[in-house]
Amino acid sequence: MADYPAPKIRNLTLVGHASAGKTVLAEAMLACAGEIGRMGSIEAGTTQSDFHPSEKDHGISVHATLLTLEWAGAKLNLLDAPGYQDFSGEALSALRVGDSAVIVVNASQGVAAGTDKMWKAADEFHLPKTLVVTGIDKPNTDFNAVLEQAREHFGTNVFPLTLPLEGGPGFNRLLDVMRSEVLTYRTDQSGAFTEAPAEGALADQVKALHRQLIEYVAESDNALMEKFFEQDGLSEEELRQGLHQALEDGVFVPVFAVSGLNNIGVSRLLDHIAKYESSPVDHHRVKGRTPEGVMIEVDLADKGTVMHVFKTMNEPGVGEFSLFRVYAGEVRNGQELFNPARNTTERIGQLYYLNGHKRAPTTVLGAGDIGAAVKLRDTHTGNTLCDPERPVVLPAVKFPRPNIHGALVCESRGDEDKFAVGLNTLREEDPSFHHRVDDEVHQTIISGQGEIHLQVTLERLVRRFGVKVSMVPPRVPYRETISGTGEAKYRHKKQSGGAGQFAEVWLRIAPGEPGSGIDFKQSLVGTNVDRVFVPSVEKGVHQACQEGVIAGCNIVDVQIDFYDGKMHPVDSKDIAFQIAGYHAFKDAFAQARPGLMEPIYEIVVTVPEDCVGDVLGDLSSRRGRIMGVDADGHFQAIKAHVPQRELHNYSTRLRSLTASRGVHTETYVSHERVPRELEATIIAEAQAARATE
């Protein structure tokens, strides 16, 4: 593919709700441009976008895939982003480097939660938006209803540039508002069509729409506004000149009706993108900061190189692939660039243009373009590479918090190192995936955006690193505490022929303030116990607190007073006082009305109005306390406090309740006492689990 200057480049991101038709639309775009001979299908696993094993196995988009095509003298870099909530991090990363967002809405689904989410994300990245309504050829579709729904959600400036003249099976005719034409398409996926002037009622309809479009365009330019009133309209050339700025200003949001499956209306969408959509020149300044934190601007015209890595992935036979956008200067093979986040230099290896799984080598990528480099040594998703003379860090994407968790068990002894390396590598490639070793429950916890996200990540771990793992529900980090006082005296005495062991420890315990942890103090008087043994007693007490007494959980919020004891001039030693302190604490704890505390999470569930009742009922069945219900645009945000025990796989249940239209976030709040009726069950479960270990 030839090199293109920045004004001729269009970087656009295809986003939307799951199953909106983005991948099929991208396939039709490539077919129109002659990049592929025939359109592939998701079912057969033959599309350009979904070429990774996990995508073929699951029949969904998992990765944001870079596709390139040439149309009307412009180079289009298409980023086909997943629609599933599980992979929203991929969509956000792709929007981060786009110059415009093409938001795809399925005519059968209408505007869904994922549509709203991607619209908000595009706003946060200050991107102009185009709506594409797909699946017009499906039964029982109503384009006008979807258009009205979009206007309710996003504003009355949502405006159709093409309209279907009939929907459902057999759909093949469009009304083109810009050209005042009726387009009749063949339904053989060729994209071929014939044009005819709009006549009769259609001519009246398009004339009214054309005038409305002129008003939108004139609104973005004072000079055009004056001409509009002076001439009672604008010429076609003036309209075209003002259209680009109107899109940039968000004065109106164009809507296109298409059938991606039959390649109907796609060529008109491509015409619009190539002629009117944003180029890197429209967003030539981006904000960054120096390594010291000073805010600066990077300009497209700057000579020094600045590039942002928005995705890393591993491909068999190639190794690590880094996808990036060039924001200033140019990137060349063999160039030495600086990574401020890691304080290292990187030597750029082979550069490529990408078109799905196809790679075309190049020696240089200019400002505004998107491409890939192989085997960057220490650069990962979200990193900036720049000229060493002018170090700069571009802002990385703020990824959503995980909302589902699992515990991993490494099944093969000796694979622990590979297991750890694999998890770290996957985390660097996908920042929306988290993992940690939880010392409280003694498990490796992985967290992600949904059940499929975790499943796909584990498949990658097995496939790439050869590690056999299984996932089990994570243990709930219960904690033990007391609500009363206790006192104990414990004597440890051991005589076995040699040096003996002797220690006697007297302890009092009482409840501590919430969040105070373990507060150990001594109030010894006299010479019954040498103060040198105080740390030994404290060590024994802390060991008991880590092991727990009633359910094997960490003990918290307890005040301990070591107030007296006895010692032997010969047999008293460190280990004896550790053991005595350990048992004295356990005895005192058992007297002080011990109980369990459970972690409570605040969850915010965003759902359509018609799902509120079902979600509220489900939350109540999970011992949830409803804290409030507030409007969030055209959705309702339910805030509740729910015990962690009740949240396992909640995201899966929520999708079932809302037909995948609901989303939620989780934030830890505090630990609270477990209800008495449940406490015995949890203690029995803990004892049974320890018996099998």
TrEMBL record:
Keyword rRNA-binding: no
Domain called Tr-type G: residue spans: 7-281
GO molecular function: translation elongation factor activity
Keyword Protein biosynthesis tagged: yes
Keywords, ordered alphabetically: Elongation factor, GTP-binding, Nucleotide-binding, Protein biosynthesis
Name of the protein in question: Elongation factor G
Organism of provenance: Actomonas aquatica
Gene: fusA
